[in-house]
Design brief:
Strand content: under 5%
Distance between the termini: 14 Å
Radius of gyration: 15 Å
Order of helices and strands: HHHHH
Length: 144
Amino acid sequence: LAFHRDALAAKCEGLTADQLVQMSAPPSDLSLLGLVRHLTEMEHVYLVYALGGGTFGLVYCTDADPDADIVGLRADMAASSLARWKDERATADELISAHQALEAPGTGNSYSVRWNLLKVIGEYARHNGHADLLRERIDGATGE
């Protein structure tokens, strides 16, 4: 999980807010900031809520705007979105550490800690491939 989080952070490193919202693979709406926001949702749902419980809710998406994590992003959203991603990651790490066994069920859903971790790792792995392509189209940077 840490490897994939760091890989996405590296893809965003050194870019301006305008570059982070650049949709560099038309007709796709994906941007690096969109990926950060989407993975913030994944961290929140499958780690923070799943392992910590509480009232279920999404960070950005709503019934009225189910793609708000990815679509309609502006440069002025970059700083707060990156900060929220960092906060969700920190909360998730605390909750992961609080569980003694990977087979223990989550408090917010009935799946095990292991299942929830694998879900989020899979999401990062899938979307880091997209991040590679987006970053290369922005400024030619390649690699992990």
